[in-house]
Amino acid sequence: MARIRKIEIRNFRSLRWLDWFPLAGINCLIGPGDSGKSTILDAIDFCLGARRNLAFCDDDFHRLHLGQPIQISVTLGELDSHLRSMEAYGLYLRGFDFRSGAIEEEPGSGLDTVLTVELTVSDDLEPQWRLVS
């Protein structure tokens, strides 16, 4: 089963900027109310969830700055063999370095082969998903 290696959130609700590298095993989000815990979970769900009829509004933009798009990227590692297929996803496969947390543009020796899904919402409020290449 695929595992999240990196989460990047920009300009979404209470979060202006977040880069998170979840560790193996169980990760806990702990903090006071309205500190962004549910926002992080919603961001992951919106980016990877099966729903494609998401409705965004002005309130979803950090401090109502519609000029700065919402960007949510989730990088997945430990991919099943069909997701590592060069025929299907070859242009989108990248490498994740566990030691540095860096994402390399090409998979390589000693790197976890990863795919990055990105959700972008501009001021037109229309969500757009893409695989990062």
Question: Main traits of this protein?
Answer:
133 residues; mainly beta; seven-stranded antiparallel beta sheet; 12% helix
Fold blueprint:
Blueprint: E1 3-12, E2 15-20, H1 37-48, E3 70-77, H2 86-89, E4 94-96, E5 103-104, E6 112-121, E7 127-131
Antiparallel strand pairs: 1-2, 1-3, 3-6, 4-5, 4-6, 6-7
Number of domains: 1
User: What best-fitting shape do the alpha-carbon axes yield?
Assistant: globular
The poorly predicted ranges are none
Q: What's the CATH C level?
A: Alpha Beta
Provide the CATH superfamily. P-loop containing nucleotide triphosphate hydrolases
CATH architecture term: 3-Layer(aba) Sandwich
The number of distinct β-strands equals 7
Short description:
With 133 residues, this protein is mainly beta. It has two helices and seven strands, in the order E-E-H-E-H-E-E-E-E.
Summarize the structure in words.
With 133 residues, the protein is mainly beta. It has a single domain, classed as P-loop containing nucleotide triphosphate hydrolases (Rossmann fold, 3-Layer(aba) Sandwich). It is 12% helix and 33% strand. The protein is built from 2 helices and 7 strands, in the order ββαβαββββ. Strands 1, 2, 3, 4, 5, 6 and 7 form a 7-stranded antiparallel sheet that branches. A hairpin with a 5-residue loop joins strand 6 and strand 7. The two termini are 22 Å apart.
